[in-house]
Every structure is written in structure tokens, then in C-alpha cells.
Amino acid sequence: MEDVGWVAARVGAVWLALVLAFIVLPSALGVSLGISEAYMWVLVKTLEWATIRIEKGVKKPQPQMLKTPAANGIIERDETPMEKEIARLHRVDFEFSDIFYFCRKGFEAIVEDEVTQRFSSEELVSWNLLTRTNVNFHYISLRLTVVWVIGVIVRYCFLLPLRFTLAAIGITSMIVGTTAVGQLPNSSVKNYLSEVVHLTCSRILVRALSGTIRYHNKENKPQKGGICVANHTSPIDAIILTNDGCYAMVGQVHGGLMGVIQRATVKACPHVWFERSEMKDRHLVTKRLREHVADKSKLPILIFPEGTCINNTSVMMFKKGSFEIGGTIYPVAIKYDPQFGDAFWNSSKYNIVSYLLRIMTSWAIVCNVWYMPPMVREEGEDAVQFANRVRSAIARQGGLTELPWDGGLKRAKVKDTFKEEQQKNYSKMLVRNGSIGSLSTGTESD
Fold it and tell me: Which of 151, 244, 343, 440 is deepest in the core (most CB within 10 A)?
């Protein structure tokens, strides 16, 4: 038994030394040895071969809606506004045929509404040799199955231990480094060391995800004293962004390991953490954020205005609170490539441990990040209009669908105000067309 323990200790020491020498140290220095590039090249070639094999093995032609990536639904929707749609049916007065529009919209929502599908993983056009697949995949050939089995062995027996080791090193370095820096008096040296620690640990954590990130338009990177807003797909969004720059995080105080990280990092960096009771006080939150933005020497605040994770196909309603603070807004669009791994966190289906296991057993995390020109609130523009303008810019840049719905619908019912808005729009049409006047005149004559 002693020999077995000695051998295990030696293997562990060699493993750790290799990880430190070939991954941790280069990533901390911002240097690449070409290992990630070689891995991605092999992965792309393998997935291309698998796609060709699947296409050859499928005898029956697939429906067009499953061939085109743009088709995200099973029904074809007519996006004609309500007023134009009903105008086709009649010119002036109310008619019973008006209900056809509302009936059709109701049937569409029952078959496949455009909101709840954003809270589940998007389907892939072709199988990516992961456990999660789409309805297109069936047994194709023995060779493809063998490649899939080899992939499972590689992902669970090699990549998972490697990534777990890197994650443990990154998190431990973050806690120890920020705690040590936090003991220093406030000065430019402390701020510099804090940024070095955050950047170094973020780079290690990105390697733990086999992350391949392309940053575009770096001249538009958020500046100190500003507010960075981005679409939200996953908890790792923050790691993706801090891999290229430091930010002051905003969020609720947590317990467990996350709480330990929060308490350590806030000593070295001016993050803004709130207690659960404080998060309900919108005025208190706004006040603390304004105080942070007013200090131009502090790092830009990173905020995800959607308030929940969306499956990276859409951008949903931005909460207006982030746009009432004032200051300069730096929009950032994040778009993941689902072919290599599903970054979306369906929090209603998976807890954080299950989600991280799925992430660490995927092939890689590949994404594009676009820094966009800064935006400021225009004269006469309220917070809601400003939020919608920023959301539209992010959706266009990231190739995402823009939806006006609140991401809170993931866990809550539709508010009565949304229903009343449709009723008000229809009543305005009747008043404008004189229908109500006609109906009231007819009633008086009766």
C-alpha cells in the first residue's frame, strides 16, 4: 500500500508540474505555446468529418427549418403589426373577424411562444459529438460511434481532471492574491497589483474552460468611471470579460465558496456587493452605484441588465435601473459558438455544480466579444428609451434577436400590464377609426 501511495504522489507531482509549466505559467504571462490552437485545429477537423459522415448517413432529406440556422422555431410567424393586420380585414368598424388576429397569435403562443424557448438550450444544426444533441441525430455508423466513445473518454478522463486542476489553481490564486493585496494601504500600487491578480487569475480560469475568445474593436474598451453593460448567457460571462480587462462587479452577497471569493476580492477591488435586503431597495442600490461612477479613478462597473441568463439567441428587456445612474455606457456584445459547447446556464434545470460539470466536459468555450462605441443618454430621452437603444445596438452587433419581454418571465407569470397594453392598443385603433362612435350612435338610435 505504501508503494501505491508513493506512486500516486509521484504521478500527482508530475501532473501538477506539467500543468504549472505548460499552462498556468504561460497563461499568467499572457503567452501562448500553441497548445490551445493545435487542440482547436484537431477539434474543428474532427467535427467537420463528423458532420460529413452524418450528412452521408442521413438518407431522408431533412425539413428546411432544421437546415437553416436562422430558423429557430417550428412555425413561421407573420410579424405584421396588429393595426395593419386588422386593417386588411376591414376599413372602419369593428367586426367579428377582428378576433382572427388574436386567435392566431394565441395559437402561435400555445404551439411555440417566443419567450420560454429562450430559456432552454438552442438546438444545433449538426451533432457536435457531445451528449447533448438535437432531433436530427440518429445512429449513423460504427466509426462515428467509436469516435464519440473516444471523445467521452478524452473529455471525462483527461480534460475534466485537467480543467478541475486549473480551476482549483485559479480560484485559490484569486483568494490568496486578493487577500494579500487587500492588506496594503489604498494607493496606485495597490490598484495596479489588484488588476494584475484579477487578470492573471481570469486567464487561468479561461484556460480551465479551454476558452478561445476573439475580442473585437478594443479601442472601445470600457474606461474607468464608466458602466459596461452586456447581454447575459452564463456566469462565466464575467470571466470572459475580465480576461481582457478589470471591472468592478455588482451583485448580491452569496454564501459558500462564492461568498469566500466575494469577501476576498472586495478587499483588493471596489466591487459592489449587496445584501439580499438591500437589493430590494432600488434607491439604495442606485445611490451606491452613482457614488462609484462619480469616482473616475475606479474601475468601470460591469452590469448585465437582463437580470437572468438567456440562451444566446436573443437579447431580452434591459432593466432601466442601470441606465438611471448617469455616466457613460459602454455596450458589449457576447456571442458564444454552441458547436463546441453550450455556455447557457438554465438555472431552473441545473444547479451551479451540474452546470460547471457540463461546461468542463464540453469540447471548448468559443465566443466573440465586440466592444462598441460609448453611448450617453440623449436630451429628452428617459431611462427606458435609453435602455432600449443600447439593447438594440447589442442585438445588431451580436446577431441576436431583440425581444421586448422581461427575462423575469423565466420564473414569473406575465404581468397584467402587458395584457392591458394590447387592450389599450386595440381600443385606440377603434377610437381612431371611429368605430366606438359608430357603435354608440347605433345604440342611441335603438
Answer: 343
pLDDT at 51: 79
DSSP helix/strand/coil, 93: coil
Side chain identity at residue 417, one-letter code: T
pLDDT tens-digit readout, 81-108: 555 555 555 445 556 666 666 777 676 6
What crossing angle do the helices spanning 2-19 and 160-182 adopt, rounded to 10°? 70
Report CA 66 to chain centroid distance, whole Å: 24
The three-class DSSP label of residue 369 is strand
| CA 135 distance to own-chain centroid | 24
Beta bridge partners of 302: 228, 249
Residue 188 CA to residue 32 CA, distance in Å, equals: 29
Closest to 89 (Cα-Cα) out of 76, 78, 100, 102? 100
Strand partners, 215: 369
Residue 119 to residue 135: CA distance in whole angstroms = 18
Residue range 33-39: mean pLDDT, rounded: 85
CA atoms within 13 A on the CB side of 75: 14
For residue 125, give the 3-state DSSP assignment: coil
Query: pTM of the entire structure?
Result: 0.77
The average pLDDT across 145-154 equals: 87
Q: 292 CB contacts (<8 Å, ≥6 apart)?
A: 248, 270, 272, 298, 301
What burial class does residue 375 get, using C-beta atoms within 10 Å of its C-beta: 0-12 exposed, 13-18 middle, 19+ buried?
A: middle
pLDDT at 71 over 50: no
Residues 278, 161: Cα–Cα separation, whole Å: 39
Question: Could you tell me the pLDDT band of residue 147, with boundaries at 50, 70 and 90?
Answer: confident
Helix (H) or strand (E) holding 152: helix 142-154
**Range in 30-34, 366-370, 378-382 the model is least confident about:** 30-34
Asked if 367 and 240 touch (Cβ cutoff 8 Å), the reply is yes
